[in-house]
Amino acid sequence: MFFLRMIFRSFSRQFKRRLLIAVTVCLSATVSVAMLGVVFDVGDKLNAELSTYGSNITVQPKADAVVNDLYNTGGDADSGASGTSESDPTTFLKESDAPKIKTIFWAFNITNFAPELNIHADVNCASESAESNFCKASSVPIVGTWFAKTLHMDSGESTVAGMNGMRSWWKLDGSWPKDDSAQGLIGTTLASKLGVTKGDTVTLYKTTADGSRNKQRIAITGIYDSGDSDNNAMYIPSSTAQVLANLPDSIDKIEVKALTTPDNDLARKASKNPNALTQDEWETWYCTAYPSSIAYQIEEVIPGSVAKQVRQVAALQGDVLQKTQAVMVLMTVLSLVAAAIAVANLMAASIGERGSELALLKAIGATDGAVSRLMLAETAVISLIGAIVGALLGSGVAQIVGHVVFGSGITMRPMVFVLVFVLLTLTVLIASFSSIRSILGLKPAEVLHGR
């Protein structure tokens, strides 16, 4: 009861300094909870945000992948038609195998994918009898793909895949074509070259491998601006492109967008040769969403394929994630250091002002330990109040950061609050250490006599 009376009496004095301690701890808790809350939840959100700017895994026929490795041909996975060669592909995957991507172990990490058949065709935007050269172009890149195709899986689940989600950064004047239709999109460069606008109809001519010449009329539903050389291409439904080229159920590439875990030494070792891993390493690698493990599992379900991560995209995701987390952790550490310095100075000033009171307590029989516990208890109560208020404010700040930066809320994990309270406890104890030492050095006789 003695210590409780002293605590309440202390609260009635030096109110300003105690309030400053509470505010300091509150601000530190706010920053720590907000930053650590985002750190523990930022991985998937940041990968999802970055993945909107292109696929991070590309799937090709094994023969094409070998040639690309030998001669460094082909383009990035997110380069679309601009990454293809000047000639048509000669090796293919089956389009009917593409949905198997959603059956792998990390199926839920596959956020989108789109098969492609990259061919070339002659284009005529005038009537068949017209002689206008302005509306003609030869060997135009044509990409047969999905736009927003609904897939019904054997598990009973449904998913939507296609370019509508893969090319979210495109500036589109018009609307996306429908799958399995005679509609298409045309890039701004090619549209300007042909004098085509949305709503026009163009005719594609394609000489197939057997020597026949097929044609297909395409209604242009929109003109896109990709910001790169892909603007010189045309996108049409894969089924239409297969009929035009007489290549049923054929594709030459699949772009995959997946949420992945940044590479580490194990992932880099596995990407070189998975067979070199020990059993424990293999299980850890296979059951972690590394780009290389997801690519490996895609190869398992699509016969004759080679799946590779787009190194630039994967490296960017890991690099940005690590730097973002490092900045937030640094802000947390700096806030804790600032809190420690502020609390130490405020406690030292408080003890200096209350020297006579503390000396009197020691004079009437209070031990050094009792006086120290009194000061620690007072500081602990004040800090606890500040920490609780700061934790609530920090949760709110984290949600604001999540909605402003990522467009969704932050999931606050209980571990964040536990970690912050442990760190604040250690911070306050360290800050109090020098003040406690000054209490132990108080000599009642000298202090009470003004010396």
Question: Could you give the topology of this structure?
Answer:
Layout: H1 2-12, H2 15-51, E1 57-61, H3 62-71, E2 93-94, E3 110-124, E4 136-145, E5 149-152, E6 158-161, H4 163-166, E7 171-174, E8 183-187, H5 188-194, E9 201-207, E10 213-225, E11 234-237, H6 238-245, E12 250-251, E13 253-258, H7 265-272, H8 279-286, H9 291-301, E14 305-309, H10 311-353, H11 355-363, H12 368-406, H13 414-440, H14 444-448
Parallel strand pairs: 4-11, 8-10
Antiparallel strand pairs: 1-13, 1-14, 2-12, 3-4, 3-9, 3-13, 5-6, 7-10, 8-11, 9-10
Please provide a written account of the structure.
With 451 residues, the chain is an alpha+beta fold. 50% of the residues lie in helices and 19% in strands. The chain contains 14 helices and 14 strands. It has helices at residues 2-12, 15-51, 62-71, 163-166, 188-194, 238-245, 265-272, 279-286, 291-301, 311-353, 355-363, 368-406, 414-440, 444-448, and strands at residues 57-61, 93-94, 110-124, 136-145, 149-152, 158-161, 171-174, 183-187, 201-207, 213-225, 234-237, 250-251, 253-258, 305-309. The strands form three sheets. A six-stranded mixed beta barrel has the order 3-4-11-8-10-9. α2 (15-51) runs antiparallel to α10 (311-353) and α2 runs parallel beside α12.
